[in-house]
Amino acid sequence: MPYWLFKSEPDTWSWDDQVAKGAAGEEWHGVRNYQARNNMRAMQVGDLGFFYHSNIGKEVVGIVEVSQTSAPDSTTDDPRWDCVHIRAVRPLLHPVTLDTCKTDPRLSGMVLVNNSRLSVQPVSADEWQVICALGGL
Tens digits of per-residue pLDDT, 62-121? Predict the structure, then answer.
């Protein structure tokens, strides 16, 4: 199963906002980067991802699930931009900071560590296990 990471500025869209959407989840709209869009186009219903607070906190705070595959982004008429829907699954017991990821040698190849600007990114199965363990899961 592929794993992913979704980045959001918590003052714009936080983990609590995502949780409040319940089982219906929310469209992960507004992404205007081709690589991030292509990552969303590769996602399948049931894929899991980390919810990451960027700018404020800079930490993985929860796990989300893709609840709807890629479709046109409702926030634009431009047909180039798609998005998926995600729903909150569970919080991490202990947020995992970017600094922790950068200093853990097991995560040295992680996209988050090497390309922190990409808003939707893949996570390897090994990286997934490490972050889950660091997060108390």
Answer: 999 999 999 999 999 999 999 999 999 999 999 999 999 999 999 999 999 998 789 999
CA distance 12 to 16: 11
Tokens (6 digits) for 9: 């500025």
How do residues 18-27 score in pLDDT, each as one tens digit? 999 999 999 9
The dihedral sign for the CA sequence 55, 67, 83, 133: positive
Residue pair 1/47 in contact (Cβ under 8 Å)? The answer is yes
Tokens representing 79 are 């047909």
- 29, 84 in Cβ contact below 8 A? no
Six-digit token pair at 130?
Answer: 């490490």
- Under a CB-based contact definition with an 8 Å cutoff, are residues 110 and 134 in contact? no
DSSP conformational letter for 65: E
